[in-house]
Amino acid sequence: MSRPQPRSTHTVTVAYAGGEARRGPVTMGQANMIRCMLRDEPEHINIHDVWPVPEGTGTEAVIEALRALAVRHEALRTTFPHGPGSAPGEQVVAPAGAFTVTVLDHDAFPGRPAAYAESLARGARIERFRLDRDFPLRISLVTLAGAPAFVTMAASHAVTDVGALAVLKAEWLSLLAGESLPPLASLTPLDLATEEATPAGLRKSGASLRYWEGIIRTGPQAMFAEPGAGGTEVATPRLTLRSRRAARALALAAERTGSPSATVLLTAWCALVAHRTGQPACVAAVPTSNRYHPRLARSVNTLSQDALLSLDVRVPSFDTLLKKAWGAALNAYRHSQFDAVALWEMIGRATFERGSQFARDVVLNDVSSLPDTVATVTSGNPEDATGPDLELSWGPDQVLPTRVLTFVYATDPLVHLSLWADPALFKRDEAEGFLTGLVRLLEAVGAADVPLASLSGLTGVHPVERGPRWCRVDGSWTSPPLVAEALSGALGGLPVHVTADAPHESGSTPPEEAAGDTAAHLTAYIAAGSTPLTPAGAHTALMDALPGRPGVLAPRRYVIVQDPPAEADRSSAWLRQQILSEGTGRDRRM
After folding, report:
1. What is the dihedral of CA 127, 131, 135, 138, to 10 degrees?
2. Closest CA to 355 of 585, 68, 49, 63
3. Residue 16 belongs to what H/E stretch?
4. Which of 159, 404, 451 lies closest to 276, judged by CA?
5. Residues 280 and 312: beta-carbon distance below 8 Å
6. pLDDT tens-digit readout, 345-361
7. What pTM does this model have?
């Protein structure tokens, strides 16, 4: 069906005044999102929303409520002045200004008006926001024969996140209902920036960087380091689960274990992700943590810095893992406020030294405990007690820099969540099997403790088969042949051979490596011929080629020889070649 065309379109300019003029530094969360906005395509980093207009509401009331929000919230009156080629470090709050509302009037809507409104909002994300001058909401009012039906918008991630849009929607609805809004109790962006710059705030940021660095240096470089994984941004279809059956199981599991439902669901999800990936730990970003602080819970601001969860799953049973998950989640949340520039500088330094490429390829965003409008903000699908026992439905593709992204919208009366799983790693039946396997795991946990060794039979989800050419090195899965191929390509086709050196001559494996580390480190042999090459040059070239190659880990040692041996596929033959130079390659950046 072709998209309906509005019978008329016009633009309303909405002036506002009454706020306070302020300026100051950006917050850590704003700096993080601005960095992404300047780097990424706008449709990937901008967010969007659809607000159904209550029946009987007039156009003027809709616009007046939007005007009131602009006056009330400093974030909506904020711009970020900066020069060409530079990232802004300051925010300016205007006391007055104007924004526009595009009114799209229709004679008729399609069979699914909400889906049509969603497509309009998503389409508005394509245009980049000008940080130095644009109002942060790009708003359209969709009307039917002059009667308002939907407000659709794209939103700048520099001042809003999903939680902020939920707060705005709730307040907008209250204004339309004639209610008075309570005084603001949450920190404004400028107030938060001031707090972050205090000695206590700086100590907290420093502690967060040290926490992250520990995981970056020791955890899996990528959860989905396996055959078929490639690329850094993938068009991924949405799979949505809505299930009363899962909600009943989750409630029983929470009651049996005495744990919050959110922690039970997080533990089950982590256990299944680690099981599917064959990893000893689940390393995942959980972005909504900072709204759990009371003074930020209803803040109109961008607070979606990652909390980085690392949950070791090498325990015998679910209940044991659940006890660990509570502490691991709190530790992650406690270390989720940081200077984003300093964080990425640390990640660059740590991964160069380790020889890895950190992949944020597993994300769980649980917004079920945020304001009750979040589920409809994100999914456009309100919950009700008469929902399906178990329903799976496919939605549109979205280009994502992740392998598996899960949004949890609600856990009662339905478990309602959406999964975006890399189609190169999950065929449609496998993605569906992962979600039904999650429901089966929750049902089993609701009845009794579950041995983690039984997950394959219980859930139908099986660990990936990597084959004999893969091994675990320095906490990460890697393939020496893939490393050799990547290094050779990075060096213009020079012959390369990579070996996995055993950790102990006796062949014994210490307990800390019992999760599958079959090699202590990699050694690369490179036949440079007449090409001038150093270990540092080889390492830098490989590190530049790592993005999009989660199965490639840099060798710990580079050995440069003149010519390849006749038996170039035999490690013993390379060992007999005369060595021109050797080293770790980590001594300097080129």
Report:
1. 20
2. 585
3. strand 8-17
4. 404
5. yes
6. 999 999 999 999 999 99
7. 0.85
